[in-house]
Amino acid sequence: MTLTTTEITSPGMTLNMGPQHPSTHGVLRLVVELDGEIIQSCRPVIGYLHRGLEKMMEARPYRHNVPFTDRLDYLASLNSNLAIAQAIERIGNVTVPERGQYLRVLLCEINRLASHLVFLGTFATDLGATTVFLYSFRERERILDLLEAMTGARLTYNWIRAGGVPTDLPEGFGERLTAFLDEFQFALDEYDRLLTGNRIFRARCEGIGVISREMAVAYGASGPVARGSGIAYDIRKVAPYDVYDRMEFDVPVYTEGDCMARYRVRVEEMRQSARIIRQCLREMPEGETMAKLPKIFKPPPGEAYSRTESPRGELSCYLSSDGSMNPTRVHFRAPSFFHLGLLPAMLPGVKVADVIAILGSLDTVLGEVDR
Amino acid sequence: MSMQRLHPRSASQAREILIGVVIAALILAALSATPLLPWHLLDPIRAYFYERPLLNNLAKAVLLVSFMAVQCLFLIWMERKFAGWLQARLGPMHVGWKGVLQTFADAIKLLLKEDIIPALADKPMFRLAPYLVFVPAMLTLMVLPFSPNLVGFDYHLGALFALSISTTGALGILAAGWGANNKYSVLGGMRAVAQLLSYEIPMILIVLCVVTLKNTMSLTQIVERQAGLWNIVAHPLLMIPGALIFFSCALAEVYRAPFDLPEAESELVSGFHTEYSGMRFAIFYIAEFANNVFTAGFAAILFFGGWHGPVLPPIAWFTLKTLLLIFLMMWVRWTLPRLRIDQMMSFCWKLLVPASLILFCLTALSVVW
Amino acid sequence: MSATDRKVNVLLDILISLRSFLKGMWVTATNLVAREKVTLQYPYEKPQVSPRYRGLFYLPFNEKEQRLNCTGCTLCEQACPTKVISMTKLGAGKHGGVSEFNMDLGRCMFCNLCIEACPFDAIYMGSAYELASYDRDASVFRIEDLAQGGKRSVEINIKTISEALAEEEKAKAAKAKAAAEAKSAADAKAASAAEERQAAEKPAASEPAPSASPESPA
After folding, report:
1. How many Å lie between the alpha carbon of A321 and the closest alpha carbon of chain C?
2. In this predicted model, what pLDDT tens digit does every residue of B83-96 receive, in sequence order?
């Protein structure tokens, strides 16, 4: 009799990460097959936050649709407002006054700062550095105070409308904003000292979750994720809207494609946003902030598509009109949705702890994915 | 320059720091006056207990456990306060002056909570696990000499006893992870055991260095033989890297960041104690802090001369050193990110183990010379 | 890479790591000692909200005209994307107002669209923000909760409006009566030329009545 070796196999463990998991950033569920601590396969399950926003918008006049977009990307709702506002303006042939355009750029960049600060905090917390979260939220709170002074709300602003911005800046806003930006530079330097150089942080980020240039293109990645993979693609430069063509700013690009590259892109983008905000404050002309839209807004039949650079990537909005008061179809191209698609390709082979790092570095917002 | 520009501290908050310093100074002053107290009045009681060894030991055990429980409650408050201040928050403020009684309120709340055992849990194991963690944590404290005559059990193999007992805590954590029948718990439990067993090796080697230098295994003796100079001053070339390695291992032994993988809340929800609530959870928590106290005290004994120090009484010195080391642990915990499991393992096996082996050889050589 | 190189690299790495840790710990230490603590002890200290803050709605009370500004034109109702507002009109036209004005804040997005839609400055958002309740019904705010001055101003509002409406009604009735009489007088005039003088006197007498209320309903 010969001895036969039986291969000892144990069935893998299926782990449900989410929808109630501290680090899935909302109600994302990842069905993960584990072999020990190593991921065999991953299947993202989405839809826990589906509210049918696009369908709801079809049943309402154009003007009513803007506040719903606050609930798409709730960390940068002004950027979501901008996407649909631009689409409505295109379909209705509305021109935004110049001051309105400057205000929009200003507000969007302020909101980008707030959103990237949330990324910074949550990403660091995912990796175990809880303190950075509190520090970045401390700065974000001051941004929210500024936005509250401007718009009256702290999260769902609804202050970029079809036609422009409903109100001008409040008294003393420019001075407050400049004072904040002056301090913010130092805050960013501090985060660099605390986090970027840290050996453990680098060990957790460098070479983890690599997205190659080809893969980023194939999966439709955009925004910081694409720029972290060496693709210098920024809608603000590629297809400038509002007054971005007059702004001087750099598009940070890193070629490594790992978590560290994406992190660095976002930190660098915060510095660039600060630059844009200063330019806006300096160059803003006087004048009207909002174009007058007719009381009953009925755009001519047709379609419109707007592309904007939200903090998460390319946020676009498609509208079609049949000449009536309501749009016949509204659709958003949400960047987070495409980035979640990268997960099944990226995760096999990494450790459980890396899942959190990779997901955090993609910086998805589930409100935008599920709509 | 940037330090002053960002969020400068207001005058009222600066005053709070001053108040804290004054209070600490007052406590130290009171402690330094303790030898003047009429301790001889207690002699009859001492004599009574001395004649009855069983009762004596029982009294010691009760004293130790109750002292540790209270100290843990205080330490938890201190850690929360420390973390709060470090994170630009205020920390607990509600119960008592500056929230001093917060942990007492939490403990009462935990006691009153419904005792939840998951339906599919391995119930005996689930019930047993907290005690398997708690008992070793308390036992290790038994051999820790707080002062020349304040030691639960002056064992001549104290170092060995402490190390071997503290390792058995891993059993309880594995039991907790397995018994809860939760996948996160299992992962946490397995991580805990792997981590503890790996980091035990460099830790033991470093302890061996000290034992070789001082030629004794008794913790009291180790402290007494540092009377002139603390180990870290007497043998800086050996003991500074030794203390660093020991400190890293100690962080891993008590599952603190950057080695808090068994309970990494962002990955494993809460690791091995995900399913625990109420008093069982509190027991885990107290055991964790007791382990903290033990490792910090152990480090103080091995490297920083235990109770030795000028002016203040021995107990005060020992407490001070232990507290400072605990503060250092908290400081590290709230600053650094968490390592990944394989990085942590390779850090131990590829760096700490060889380094501690080399250190041990060097120590042996230096002793032979 | 030679073995010694590797050893040097490992040592360098350790030193670099330690340096990066110390840098980070320095940052946290400065925050511990030198920075302001930013916590706001919320239920005890309330945040200062900005003048534009979008909190609980209110209907301003017009002291001069002793009524709420709202005319019941339903423009806000139409402007609301989530159908928060429902109202019961009290009359119509210039003297019109509302007797009931309900806002179901359980579905409100606080989007400011109703305020921008109002041509009469009749609805604003105030600074009250603690609006959570244990009861769904409690999230429905009625006119007496929303009106500036509460129940009293609502009563005054209703009184002023109904008086104005009654007057208007009276004027209308008088005008109608006058018109009817004028008509009958005209009929009579057409019927009988003999009564012409008698009929012409009456409309002249009733003429001041409609002019007593200067604005006639649009």
Report:
1. 19
2. 888 888 888 888 87
